[in-house]
Design a protein that fits this description.
mainly alpha, Endonuclease III, domain 1, 245 residues, 57% helix, binds iron/sulfur cluster, 2 domains
């Protein structure tokens, strides 16, 4: 039997990887320049874990489609009502939904939280997600996104914030700023955006990039009235100039 022919390299890379490859060729240094510009505004954030992984996962589920304040209120109510995670997992969906109602969409979020806790317990024997650090980043993301109601943003938040694993959570700010600068295609899907960011930046700068883009999206790069005149990225931003380098 003749040896199998290798597929050309171009046929093996994903559309997101192909986009990043072209971007780096056509607009060399654009990501680095954007991050340098953002650093002049916001400094260089340094990663440190902010809460235990299961709490982060539950909080992130609670924060879907609502404000951080509402999510925190719902999380506080949940911790006050149940003595431990086993009690949350065992709680009837309707009871749990009533407890977390201040977070909105409680009827959807309650089963998601229970499913996440069950999957974690069945995998680790406890409510402990540290086994994810032994996995490749994308395998860990896949494990989390196999849980109903957990998408790439939620999975990436847990991996980046709890374990420092270089996955980019693409929220509304990251998406808007990235598209305006032209780091992502204007019509990129969220899945495409999550995949592209894996190759857009050095893994060691993923946290810095995430935090800086969020701050920029909440500050200068406002959804309705971006303050381009005072933005250090304007020379390389395609929202300002369609053919910006
Ligand atoms: S130049 Fe304007 S649109 Fe571009 S990143 Fe800065 S604030 Fe946003």
């Amino acid at each position: 039997m003749p040896p199998a022919r290798k597929r050309p390299v171009s046929a093996r890379i994903s559309p997101a990887q192909a986009w990043v490859k072209q971007l780096k060729k056509r607009r060399p240094g654009v990501v680095e320049d954007a991050l340098s510009g953002l650093a002049t505004l916001y400094g260089t954030p340094v990663w440190k874990p902010r809460m235990d992984p299961i709490s982060e996962l539950v909080t992130t589920i609670l924060s879907q489609n609502t404000s951080d304040t509402n999510a925190e209120r719902a999380f506080t109510a949940l911790r006050a009502r149940y003595p431990d995670w086993a009690a949350v997992e065992a709680a009837p969906v309707r009871s749990l939904a009533a407890v977390i109602k201040s977070g909105g969409l409680a009827a959807q979020k309650a089963p998601r939280i229970k499913a996440a806790l069950r999957a974690t317990r069945e995998r680790s024997g406890a409510y402990d997600l540290s086994f994810l650090t032994a996995m490749e980043p994308l395998a860990a993301r896949d494990w989390l996104t196999a849980i109903p109601g957990i998408g790439p943003k939620t999975a990436s938040i847990v991996m980046l914030f709890c374990f420092g694993v270089p996955l980019m959570p693409v929220d509304t700010h990251v998406e808007r700023v990235s598209k305006r600068i032209g780091l992502l295609p204007p019509k990129a899907s969220l899945q495409f955006a999550h995949d592209a960011w894996l190759d857009l930046v050095e893994p060691s700068r993923m946290y810095e990039a995430h935090v800086a883009l969020i701050r920029h999206g909440r500050g200068h790069c406002d959804a309705l009235r971006p303050d381009c005149g005072r933005c250090p990225i304007r020379a390389r931003c395609r929202y300002v100039e369609k053919r910006a380098p």
